[in-house]
Amino acid sequence: METLSSTKTQSWLFWFLRGALILGFLILVGRLLELTIIKGAYFRSLSEENRIRRIPISAPRGRILARAGEELVGNKEVKKRIIFNPESGYEKVDFKVGDPQDETITEWVRDYKLAESFAHVSGYLGQTSQEEVGTVDPLCPEKGPRKSGGWVGRTGLEAYYECRLSGVDGEELVEVDTTGKRVRTLGKKDPTSGQDITTSIDFSLQREAANALGNKKGAVVALSGTGEVLALHSYPSFDPNLFVTKGKEQEISALLKNPDEPFFDRAIGGLYHPGSVFKPFVAIAAVEEGRVDENFYYEDPGVITIGRFSYSNWYFNQYGGKEGKIGLVRAIARSTDTFFYKVGEMLGVDEIVKWAHRFGLDEATGLDLPGEVSGLVPSPEWKLRVKGERWFLGNTYHMAIGQGDIALTPIEVGRATLGVATGELCEPKIVGDTNCREIELGDKSVEMVKEGMQDACLSGGTGFTFFDFEPSVACKTGTAETSLEGQSHAWFSVFAPVDFPQISLTVLVEKGGEGSKVAGPIARRIFDFWFHGKIPQNDREK
Questions:
Q1: For residue 516, what pLDDT is reported?
Q2: What is the Cα–Cα distance from 430 to 205, expressed in whole angstroms?
Q3: How would residue 296 be classed by pLDDT, with cut points 50, 70 and 90?
Q4: How far from 160 is each of 30, 122, 123, 321, CA to CA, in Å?
């Protein structure tokens, strides 16, 4: 006979076991609901990922074409074989003859035809960084998020026109079995190519400009009469093909460590004292402001002394000579420093600054390349603010001949020189139309300055490399002293034909010496090629 206590114990145990069973059942049902309904899609996707491989297919970027349609930057077709394995999912290996066609995809590698000769204009590609993966370019959100292993323009046209040049990658869906082997192709989305861009670059002139500058550190800027960029070169340079070729890490590292800074675009980012190539703008200012006319003459003393400071002419320094009685036209042709010291004094620094601004020498040109900087045209206010010093007459003297603190880029000098030639200030472009505006110059100032620049390239002028050149040219030499003793920047600016300019060229050789002796021959070689198709014998043999 059961006792009361044993009955109570059995009753408690029964209900405990029953409750535990119900609780366990509820937990099991809840877990089942979680796995099938709440997280069903998640686990289904994991299962699909184990069974399906997504193979991205890179899209070819748009080509960069020269003005006549030649390919400056294109794409090389590369075939890859896709090998599947359960560890890494898949890998791409080089295609070999005999490999199954259904395991092959076509990809594209960037091909820079002119390599170092066009590197600063073309720019180069870099693979998307960890920070860039998954981000969207706000300028072209329709291209979608950037993917790991993709390519992005880093400098030059590749970066500036990234949205136009970049395509939309494709994708292939492949089903694999439990061992990771291909079963079948489920679908394929072909990539969409990027858009081609046609530039104003003259293919042959670009190559010749690079050959003419050679291994001299500097820049060449060639503009058409309407401000289009015909050629733009900076040296030292680099080969953009290195960045899209495997196994070139050492070469790239050496370039990055090179003290000559081959990635630095001297044409648009380098600031240099312009020297005497600045004188034509001072001359125009003097005529426009009524300080000088065709009847104005100055007796060259060879050297001007103010207190304990002396300001001499190059002709006096090198040969002990004096120019005698000299007018504006002759002063430009002979690049007479003392004449421009006096003209600068008559004008005053504020007028020089005003006319430098009129020619856009204190602002970026608006060229469609990243990395352009603005020139520095100093003023008394600038000197007081930056250096904490007053402006003196000697500062005006130096500025009037393109020395002192004034610093300009080759592209700025090139655009301003074209402004003298055409009377218009253009926003130079490599892709698309240029935008030009009148500088509002009087006929007399342009006539006198052009005559002086034309005489500079005739017998008796400083541009001796062009004495026998046809058609007629207008030029200005420049030898700009640097802060380093005994070194100077060599400049040469020239345009032709004088009456209806077809091309304007500016050459800078950094710390190269005299403009007439160093930059002048480079300019002459480029003009010989442009107007007469001449190619040096050693280049023809290459």
A1: 97
A2: 14
A3: very high
A4: 56, 10, 9, 52
Q: What 8-state DSSP symbol labels residue 54?
A: E
Q: Are 105 and 59 in contact (CB under 8 A)?
A: no
- Using pLDDT thresholds of 50, 70 and 90, give the confidence band for residue 190: confident
Amino acid found at 542: K
Count of beta carbons in the 10 Å neighbourhood of residue 390: 9
- Per-residue pLDDT band for 107 (boundaries 50, 70, 90) equals confident
Q: Does residue 504 carry a pLDDT above 90?
A: yes
Specify whether the backbone of 538 is left (phi greater than 0), alpha (psi in -120 to 50) or beta.
alpha
**C-alpha to C-alpha distance for 498 and 469, rounded to whole angstroms:** 12
Question: Taking Cα atoms as reference points, which of 89, 83, 15, 3 lies closest to residue 52?
Answer: 89
**Burial class for 483, CB neighbours closer than 10 Å (0-12, 13-18, 19+):** exposed
Closest by CA to 315, choosing from 301, 298, 294, is 301
Distance linking the first and last C-alpha atoms of the chain: 119
> H helices of 150-201, where?
156-160, 162-165
Torsion angle defined by CA atoms of residues 12, 18, 23 and 25, in that order, rounded to the nearest 10 degrees: 170
pLDDT tops 70 at residue 447 = yes
Are 285 and 351 a contacting pair, CB within 8 Å?
yes
Which pLDDT does position 43 carry in this prediction?
A: 45
The predicted pLDDT at position 44 comes to 52
Q: Answer yes or no: are the C-beta atoms of 205 and 402 closer than 8 Å.
A: no
Structure-model confidence comparison of residues 97 and 519, the more confident one = 519
What is the model's pTM? Answer: 0.87
Strand-pairing partners, residue 326, are 298
Q: How far apart are CA 10 and CA 414, in angstroms?
A: 105
Q: Which of 318, 320, 314, 321 is nearest to 336 (CA)?
A: 314
- Compute the mean pLDDT over every residue in the chain, rounded to the nearest whole number: 90
Q: Which pair of tokens denotes residue 329?
A: 């036209």
Structural domains in the chain, sorted by start? 52-198 (3.90.1310.10), 203-540 (3.40.710.10)
Distance between CA atoms of residues 182 and 461, nearest Å: 78
- For residue 386, give every residue at least 6 positions away whose Cβ sits within 8 Å of its Cβ, in sequence order, or none: none
Encode pLDDT of 6-51 as tens digits.
Answer: 555 556 666 777 777 777 777 776 666 665 666 556 545 544 455 6
Q: What are the pLDDT digits (tens) for 131-142?
A: 999 899 999 999
Residue linked to tokens 């043999």: 541
Pairing outcome for strands 218-224 and 229-235: antiparallel
* Residues in contact with 509: Cβ distance below 8 Å, sequence separation at least 6, in sequence order: 213, 216, 217, 218, 489, 490, 518, 519, 522
Query: Which residue type occupies 373?
Result: V
Alpha helices for 434-519 (secondary structure H) = 443-456
Phi, psi of 23 (to 5 degrees): -65, -45
Identify whether 86 is preceded by a cis peptide bond (ω within 30 of 0).
no
